[in-house]
Amino acid sequence: MNKTDRKVLELLSKDGPLTLNEIAEKLDMKPKAVFRSLRRLFEKEIVSSDLRTRKYFIEKDEQ
User: Fold this and answer.
1) Domains: count for the chain
2) CATH number at residue 37
3) pLDDT exceeding 90 applies to what percent of the chain?
4) How many of the other CB atoms lie within 10 Å of CB of 18?
5) CA-to-CA distance for 62 and 32, rounded, in angstroms?
6) For a pLDDT cut of 70, what percent of the chain falls above it?
7) Helix 20-27 and helix 31-43: axis angle, to 10°?
8) What mean pLDDT is predicted for residues 24-33?
9) Whole-angstrom Cα distance, residue 44 to residue 32?
10) Residues 32-43: what's their mean pLDDT?
11) What's the domain range around 20?
12) Cα separations (Å) of 22 from 18, 55, 63?
């Protein structure tokens, strides 16, 4: 897990479900960089997404 992954997780933990663009804006990062991080976290089953709202959230918080 890299620095960006940790920043994304910290933000999702604090601010709840967020869209890709909301995360990028809050972290002052490009959406492409955030997307790569979310994809890694999704593949590790740490983060999930709601296809209807297009928001990402930490998996353990939603169970």
Assistant:
1) 1
2) 1.10.10.10
3) 89
4) 21
5) 25
6) 95
7) 120
8) 98
9) 19
10) 97
11) 3-62
12) 6, 9, 23
- For residues 39 and 52, give the distance between their C-alpha atoms in angstroms, rounded to a whole number: 18
* CA contacts within 13 A on the Cβ side of 40: 13
Residue 11: which H helix or E strand, with range? Answer: helix 3-15
Residue 62 has a pLDDT of 44
Q: Give pLDDT, residue 47.
A: 97
36 Cβ contact partners less than 8 Å away, ≥ 6 residues apart:
4
Structure tokens given for 62: 């939603």
Please check whether residue 8 is in contact with residue 27, taking contact to mean a CB–CB distance below 8 angstroms: yes
Sorted by sequence, the CB contacts under 8 Å of residue 20 that are 6+ apart come out as 31, 34, 35, 38, 54, 56
